[in-house]
């Protein structure tokens, strides 16, 4: 709704025709068997292995260009794809082939009347559009997720990874050429014009998955009618209640912040009940100092020793860094209000030994993940046991939270009859049985 | 994305504060038990019964105003709410109270490690915004669907039904006042400015459900970032294959078109395989003539007796009337292409006795409903056995097709630990078990 026509151009005729080709190939892919899709993944993995040298060489060229362009070190780290990292990504493709087929699962099976049987079966979405920044291994992961779930994909990598992406894409296509999946099911976009044009491919692209900065995600959400799977913000909270095992709470706070500070599921704000603040905060201060985490406190937290005062902007801010806002709250209710106001509905946790307080927190906090006495860092598709992660969604509607392969399928109702017509039920001649059948 | 700022104004401060009040009440409602929500529905039903006379009188006043405004007869028919229709709507509220609770269902239950247990539980969406035209009984239905599923609702009825809606809304609130559900969980909007402003209540409204004309739905889809449950078009097809029980196919064609021609699940186009066309079409022509349905044919259909030629616009057009486009196709593949090109992915059916053709159609047509040898008119939440229908969605992502109460809930992940931290798994000190537990 916030689009400006100049920001999002109409897709070019060339992009439209490429997207239409992907869609046609995806329709055929959607009819492939589980075994055919598994075999395609194994062929992709083999082809990547054969091309490993060329891929690493292309990546070296990208890294050299990045060095001469003076790219930020964090970006360079994400860009780097050496032999070991590539081998890991290829292993990921093989693991994906082994995951249970997400397609063709019967979710509902009802006899509406004798001879009139309804079923709801999972089917691929169609075509996914993926826009990612820097990390070239994301191309391998996303392409294999798409093929495993029977979807075509339009893939747009970052400009800085263009050589790596081209080499990987060539290997993926060569792999597909040795399988029964049409290689046209995957297309690599290379220009910014193309990735912008993709946002307007309603009807040809069914889901857009942005993998990159919050700004990228927000821009995409604001400039497309196509559903977007992702999250702009990960503003996670940890509330330490008055009834608490303080030693355990401190371990959880440190893990939630420092195990990977740039992750979306790291905490940005620590809320501490006033009744334990004077005892708990000194321990927090020294433990986080040892971890080189800067604390920014509310006035009461500062009075208890937090060195730097938090600004108004620090509440609800995703630092993505070794910075943690700390607030002393009067009650559980104040903590709930703070989270409702400043959180991003990603993952929020409580440390408490009081079952009633735990229950209230778990039912009142409206986030994709609500945790009791454990680290927010568990919010992840692999840790949840999904085997693969498409992304993490902070929207209200499903799919929500960490999304596995199920995020790349939808369902369809199939109704099989023997000449059944609705008029017979309207007239009362026949009646619905609505009998559940085994799945 | 197609919005013009003038079409969708910012919500007024008054609307914002009303929506915030609904959201607060909805948060409390979301914590209510199944029994409390059931009881609230029964209290609403009783209150509506007590106010029946006032509601019918208000409706009579709306009908008189409609007559003096010379409203279209179809609109007047939808506007009318006499004692019998009201009693039916009240009975619907009581039935809804009896439906199984959609909230608090455990969908996933996994032990990630000893003492670290993940579950996924259904929870209310929060607040739904509903915009409907004319039919005042829709207000009763939607309000009770919302309360049953633990959601607050902003409700905007048509201007022509304003007196009826006000009377119904008063009765609903009086009913809620006798229950443990805060009456503020429901709010009635009355002006066009308010319903436009609602489209911008991102963060306060979680789902918009438009109930009205295709134009209304399309306008809303194009002018909000909030997810929309609904469908702009219902362009359904019936394909009569060459291997077919022609008598049965004719019965199905007639039912699919005439059982309720204005419904979204009525067919708009009949596709006939060329090998049966010369035999089947004459029967179609006389049968539809008897039903006062106008046929518009492709050249080959016209050559076989269809009196009027279809224009290019007639393919893919939702007539919502006693008009049916008829096309002779060379093959199953041509039928599939026609449906892919002109359909709206609502419901499409095939009549065939060939299992292979049936299988190909059921897997290749990418619509919310794909039917074999039965009428498209079965595409309906009640007929599917869902007990209640929130709407029918033609989007690709779930919820798709007829949507019952499950369309008004989402889910949340709850993770309960005993001090578990992610670092222990990263270091290899602990390993995930990912053991499925009983639901």
Plain-language structure description:
The structure is a homodimer of 439-residue chains. The first copy, chain A, is of the alpha/beta class. Chain A has two domains: 13-222, Aldehyde Dehydrogenase, Chain A, domain 1 (3-Layer(aba) Sandwich), CATH 3.40.605.10; 236-378, Aldehyde Dehydrogenase, Chain A, domain 2. Helix content of chain A is 41%, strand content 21%. A seven-stranded parallel sheet of chain A has the order 10-9-11-8-7-12-13, sandwiched between helices. Chain A has a four-stranded antiparallel sheet with strand order 16-2-1-17, with no helix packed on it. In chain A, strand 7 (236-240), helix 10 (246-258) and strand 8 (267-273) form a beta-alpha-beta unit. In chain A, helix 3 (52-68) packs antiparallel against helix 7 (162-177) and helix 5 (83-98) packs parallel to helix 6 (137-148). The longest helix of chain A has 18 residues, at 13-30. Chain A is globular and about 75 Å long. The two termini of chain A are 42 Å apart. The model of chain A is unreliable at 1-5 (pLDDT under 50).
Structural features:
homodimer, 439 residues, alpha/beta, Aldehyde Dehydrogenase, Chain A, domain 1, 7-stranded parallel β-sheet, 4-stranded antiparallel β-sheet, 41% helix, 21% strand
């Amino acid at each position: 709704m916030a689009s400006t026509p100049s920001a999002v151009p109409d897709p070019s005729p060339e992009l439209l025709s490429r997207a239409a080709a992907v869609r046609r190939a995806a329709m055929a892919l959607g009819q492939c068997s589980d075994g055919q899709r598994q075999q395609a993944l194994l062929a992709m993995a083999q082809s990547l292995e054969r091309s490993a040298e060329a891929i690493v060489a292309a990546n070296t060229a990208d890294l050299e260009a990045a060095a001469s362009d003076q790219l930020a070190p964090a970006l360079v780290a994400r860009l780097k794809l050496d032999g070991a990292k590539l081998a890991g990504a290829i292993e990921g493709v093989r693991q994906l082939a082994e995951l249970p087929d997400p397609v063709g699962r019967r979710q509902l099976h009802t006899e509406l009347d004798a001879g009139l049987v309804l079923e709801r079966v999972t089917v691929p979405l169609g075509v996914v559009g993926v826009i990612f920044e820097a990390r070239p291994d994301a191309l391998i992961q996303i392409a294999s997720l798409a093929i495993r779930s029977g979807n075509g994909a339009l893939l747009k990598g970052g400009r800085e990874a263009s050589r790596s992406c081209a080499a990987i894409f060539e290997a993926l296509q060569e792999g597909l050429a040795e399988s029964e999946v049409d290689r046209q099911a995957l297309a690599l976009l290379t220009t910014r014009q193309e990735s912008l044009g993709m946002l307007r491919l309603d009807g040809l692209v069914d889901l857009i998955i942005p993998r990159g900065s919050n700004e990228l995600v927000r821009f995409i959400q604001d400039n497309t009618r196509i559903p977007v799977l992702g999250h702009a913000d990960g503003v996670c909270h940890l509330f330490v209640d008055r009834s608490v095992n303080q030693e355990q709470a401190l371990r959880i706070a440190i893990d939630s912040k420092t195990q990977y500070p740039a992750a979306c599921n790291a905490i940005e704000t620590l809320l501490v009940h006033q009744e334990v603040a004077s005892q708990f905060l000194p321990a927090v201060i020294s433990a986080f100092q040892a971890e080189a985490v800067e604390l920014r406190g509310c006035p009461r937290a500062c009075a208890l020793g937090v060195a730097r005062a938090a600004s108004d902007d620090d509440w609800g801010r995703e630092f993505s860094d070794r910075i943690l806002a700390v607030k002393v709250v009067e009650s559980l209710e104040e903590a709930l209000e703070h989270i409702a106001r400043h959180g991003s509905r990603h993952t929020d946790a409580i440390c408490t030994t009081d079952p009633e307080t735990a229950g209230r927190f778990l039912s009142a906090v409206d986030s994709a993940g609500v945790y009791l006495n454990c680290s927010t860092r568990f919010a992840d598709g692999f840790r949840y046991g999904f085997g693969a992660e498409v992304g993490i969604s902070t929207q209200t509607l499903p799919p929500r939270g960490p999304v596995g392969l199920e995020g790349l399928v939808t369902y369809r109702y199939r109704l099989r009859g023997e000449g059944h017509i609705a008029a017979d039920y309207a007239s009362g001649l026949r009646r619905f049985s609505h009998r559940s059948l085994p799945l």
